[in-house]
Amino acid sequence: MAQADPNCHNCRVLEVSQSLARIFAILALPLLAACAGSPQTSDSPPVVPGYEGIQDGEFFIEPVPAQFLQEGNRREEVAYSGDDRPGTIVVDTYARKLYLVMDGGRAMRYPIAVGREGLSFRGTGVISRKAEWPSWQPTANMIRTRPDLYAAYAGGLPGGLQNPLGARALYLYRGGRDTMFRIHGTADAASVGYATSAGCIRLFNQDAIDLYNRTPSGTRVKVRTEVESLAAEGPQMEDAYGRVVAATPGNMSKREKDLVQIARKAEKDQVAAGKADRKRLAACQRRGIEPEDCPGPELPDAVVTVGTSDTSMNG
Fold it and tell me: Catalytic pick from 9, 11, 200, 294?
């Protein structure tokens, strides 16, 4: 083997350079590995267990946004002290809760939205009809009183994601006759837990499917009176945002504080809207456009909320 010349200065420089290169390469490996192995962050919102997206037949039901699933506004097994027998559905339109009574003093509790039609029934009935992705058709009275909302749907709507009855519907009968009272799903997740202008008893579509699967035909349904609700749930009140909460001194105080904050925000929004409108008009003036011809801000597409009286026998 040839011996390195001890007097070769260029050789020594080359050896040092090669050694430094090896050192830098070793030091750089963790950095390169860290870059290559960095997990990709996702901007997708968190999904609450039980409210994931569902492929249900030909339709995909979107996950329920976590913002609509705050404490008390999600499906939950709870203690139940009522005297209703297991298997009974108990609807409390005042507390905006639905209970499916279970054995052992337990119940599955679901949050609900309550529409005008949902307030018209009290007492008991029986689930005599069930439907998956039910069709919907407004009644003649609905079309006559609100043609602006219902005339376009006079021929009915087939089951699907845009149908107001959602993924599942349970139909309440009394004495063999349809009461027009429905327990059904909805794609309008923001409405669950609130009073609504139309509809009967709405659940998140995920909850409607869960209840449907637990409920055979012939299931007894009891809709509580106000007295029964007060005895079972205690005094209730609406908070500043329209959600039902226990009528405690703490919640009353919080409502007053929240109302002040809401009013302040509304005032700020009004000032900001006025400023934006003046800016819009000034821009039009510079372009020689008269105020009456000045384009306004783009508005989102109108969403028609329809009721849930159903005359179809499909499903």
Answer: 200
What is the reported pLDDT for 299? 54
Helix (H), strand (E) at residue 267: helix 249-286
User: How far is the C-alpha of 38 from the C-alpha of 2, rounded, in Å?
Assistant: 47
**Ramachandran class of 307: left when φ > 0, alpha when ψ lies in -120 to 50, beta otherwise:** beta
Query: And the tokens for 310?
Result: 């159903």
**Backbone φ/ψ region at 86: left (φ over 0), alpha (ψ -120 to 50), beta:** beta
- Would residue 200 show up in a list of annotated catalytic residues for this protein? yes
Q: Report the pLDDT value the prediction gives residue 142, as an integer from 0 to 100.
A: 78
Q: Which of 35, 184, 284, 294 is catalytic?
A: 184
What DSSP state is assigned to residue 94? Answer: T
Q: Which fold has domain 49-315?
A: L,D-transpeptidase catalytic domain-like (2.40.440)
Residue (of 230, 242, 225, 308) closest to 73 by Cα position: 242
Helix, coil or strand: residue 50: coil
Catalytic residue list contains 9: no
Between 289 and 298, the more confident residue is 289
Pairwise CA distance, residues 188 & 194, whole Å: 11
189-235 pLDDT tens trace: 999 999 886 668 999 999 999 999 999 999 999 999 999 999 999 99
b vs e for 124-149, b when ≥16 Cβ sit within 10 Å of the residue's Cβ?
A: ebbbbbbbebbbbbbeeebbeeeeeb
Whole-prediction pTM:
0.75
What does the pLDDT average to over 117-130? 88
**What residue ranges do the domains of the chain occupy?**
49-315
Selected residue with higher pLDDT from 36 and 145:
145
Sign of the torsion angle spanned by Cα atoms 91, 184, 204, 55: positive
- Residue 113, burial from CB neighbour count under 10 angstroms (0-12, 13-18, 19+): buried
